[in-house]
Structures are given as structure tokens and as C-alpha cells.
Write a structure and sequence with these properties.
Number of helices: 10
Radius of gyration: 18 Å
Number of strands: 14
Largest sheet: 8 strands, mixed
Helix content: 25-40%
């Protein structure tokens, strides 16, 4: 029996229309009744994950959150961060200036949404591909304040271009990942969902062999490899499937429920 189950949200726990099916909710509640710890692991901010916690109606003693791709680990019961790794002001400024040089907007992820420089000639295009709120400002203190991650959001072809031509000065200094087709994100070097699971497992005195993880995107790969059993969704990228021990059905076909029932509920 696994002691901890880590679940990605978008494309995994949530259906395409951002819902949790009744069967999936039932399966997760069965885990909690057996004393299993549930970890919601997402690229979203803590605020963006809160609605999912509420929808699941789980006892906070059994819930932990890995947000911003592993930059932050939150205990729902104590309402405190177990880990909080932030890009510093100089990092944000450096990445933002590099983005300007290649003609792309760098969006800093704040608790309330994305913050971006207002006085620039580059079009603000994130609203075409994301529902995250965007705050335009000329306030350098706000633009360069420490944040868990920064993002580039654009059409698939532009993000392809960015990821293929990322310079060594950026790639070697920051943790870079494509979390969705239209998102390219940068965090503190070494930050990812796998390392966050490792920190949390140490905190809870749980062995990797006692962890099951489920995900669908490339920012889930480290988490799937770290867990004793990593499961890729049927809708996952082939790269993600190669990182996994098993493959379940898609997020629109109760993939999480199927995996839990197969490997956890007997």
C-alpha cells in the first residue's frame, strides 16, 4: 500500500473542462480513509490550487501542495510553507531583459496573477493562451520582486522557437521547463516536482518506494521518476510516457481513478 499519492492537476486530475469526476473524487476519498497522504502537485500557484482542494473536500491533515512546479511546498494543516524557493530580484531582471532581447514578454508569477512591464513595444499576448490575470506595471520594485517562477506564454511555434534556442547562460543558471504547449517556465535551478517530492518525503519520513505519482506533462517527469511507481496519463506526451512505470487512461476517461483502483485499492 502506498503512503503518499502525488497528483498533477491540469490534464491529470482535472478533465479537459477542469472538473473532477465523481469516480475520481470517490477514489481519492478512499485513499484518505486508509490514511494515505494526498499531494496536489502543479505548475499553478497555491492560490490557483485552493479551488481544487475545496472541490475535493479533503481533511487538511491529509493534504499537501506542491505549487509552481516545485518551488513551493505547502502544508494545508499548518498553513505554512515547508519549502519556498524564489527567484531573486536580480534573476527576474536578468530573465526579463533576455526576453526583451529576443522579442518576448517575460511574465512574473505573483500570488494574484502575472506581472509584466507596461512600457515596452512587445505585444502582451498571454491572454490568448491563458486565463491567468495580467497586471501591467512600470513599478520596478514590483517587476523585480522575488517570485517562485517566471513564464513565457505564446503560440506553440514561438514556444518551440524559444525552447530550441535557449542560451547556455539561461539554461545552466535556471530550471527551465515546458509545462504546457503554450507555457515555458523558469525557476530556481534544481526546482522541479521530483525534488519537491523528495523534500516532502524526507519531511514526512516516507520512502520513495511508498510513493505513487501520476502526471501528463514534461514538468511531471522528475516526479514520475522519483516515485516508487510513476504513472503517465493516456493523454500524456510520449516523452512523459517513457518516464513512467505504467500508463493509465486519459484525464477524460477517469485515468486517475483507474490508476488508484488498480494500484491502491484492493
Amino acid at each position: 500500500m502506498y503512503k503518499l499519492v502525488a497528483l498533477d492537476l491540469d490534464g491529470t486530475l482535472l478533465t479537459t473542462d477542469k472538473k473532477i469526476t465523481a469516480r475520481t473524487r470517490w477514489a481519492i476519498h478512499q485513499l484518505v480513509e486508509q490514511g494515505v497522504i494526498i499531494v496536489l502537485a502543479s505548475g499553478r500557484t497555491l492560490t490557483g490550487i485552493q479551488g481544487v482542494i475545496n472541490a475535493l473536500s479533503l481533511d487538511s491533515n491529509n493534504v499537501y501542495v506542491i505549487s509552481c512546479n516545485g518551488a513551493q511546498i505547502w502544508s494545508a494543516s499548518t498553513q505554512h510553507f515547508i519549502s519556498n524557493q524564489l527567484l531573486q530580484a536580480g534573476d527576474v531582471h536578468c530573465i526579463r531583459q533576455w526576453g526583451c532581447r529576443i522579442g518576448m514578454v517575460c511574465y512574473a508569477q505573483h500570488t494574484s496573477g502575472l506581472v509584466v512591464e507596461v512600457d515596452q513595444d512587445i505585444p502582451i499576448r498571454a491572454s490568448r493562451y491563458s486565463h491567468l490575470s495580467i497586471h501591467l506595471t512600470a513599478d520596478e520594485r514590483l517587476l523585480n520582486t522575488p517570485v517562485p517562477k517566471v513564464m513565457f506564454i505564446d503560440d506553440v511555434e514561438t514556444i518551440d522557437y524559444l525552447s530550441e534556442r535557449l542560451p547556455a547562460e539561461i539554461k545552466n543558471k535556471y530550471q527551465c521547463v515546458r509545462s504546457e504547449p503554450n507555457y515555458y517556465e523558469m525557476m530556481v535551478k534544481g526546482v522541479n516536482k521530483g525534488n519537491a517530492c523528495r523534500i516532502l518525503a524526507t519531511h514526512l519520513d516516507i520512502l520513495p518506494a511508498d510513493i505513487l505519482a501520476i502526471g501528463n506533462e514534461r514538468n511531471d517527469c522528475e516526479m514520475l521518476r522519483f516515485a516508487g511507481r510513476g504513472i503517465a496519463m493516456g493523454n500524456a506526451d510520449d516523452v512523459v510516457k517513457r518516464c513512467a512505470d505504467d500508463i493509465t487512461t486519459s484525464n477524460d476517461d477517469d485515468g486517475v481513478a483507474n490508476a488508484i483502483e488498480r494500484f491502491c485499492l484492493h
